[in-house]
Amino acid sequence: MLINFGIKDAIDILLVAFFLYETYLLMKKTGTIAIFLGVLAFIALWLLISQVFEMRLMGAILDKFISVGFILLVIVFQKEIREFLQALGSNKGIQVVMNLFKPKGESVDENISYIMPIVMASMDMAKRKEGALIAIQQDNPLDIYAETGEEINANISTRLIENIFFKNSPLHDGAMIIAGKKIKAASCILPVSQNHDIPKRYGLRHRSALGLSEETDAKVIIVSEETGKISLAYKGKLYSSISTEELQKLLITKS
Q: In whole angstroms, what separates CA 137 from the centre of its chain?
């Protein structure tokens, strides 16, 4: 079988892998990763029954489910699929392809220019015990969460971040989302973690930060209004009571 393996077969495999990867990111963005894994498991079962064991009756039944199921998925996820196709047809599509060949991580100089104002704002708010929740986009888009708040699209500055989270500000409730080295939106709603192992001393800000970090690769800063301590949620893990130096290091590091 390997003797007949050619360039077209390699391109075919790469295209399927690319499609599955982009679908995975889409499902992760919308918080429906379990559906994606379920669909993959069903397809694997269908191939096993119809192609490997050649069970005609079960294969025919599953064929019907596959055809109907595809239509149902298009109906359920029509908004997300439309956004995905729009992204492929725009400059974002080119960026996605380029990212496949781009080494991961940015240099410290590229990162520190916009991270330092965030760190300084977090430090100042911690001293005044002003609560804050800041989500910094990494590879996974946060558009679906940004749409729940007020659009800002402003350059990052320490003063602007502090003014948004000032207690009398109409935007201080909810989360700020930073993407593309800009403040994209404020007063956004984040998914709350359902993890029962979270200590009861943590409030809604910490649970929301953990919830987003479980569904995306965003780095989420929490400034506690009660204690004035700074924490960071990343990939479902909470780094609590960290110093500003530790916060800066965690934000710069791409891992």
A: 7
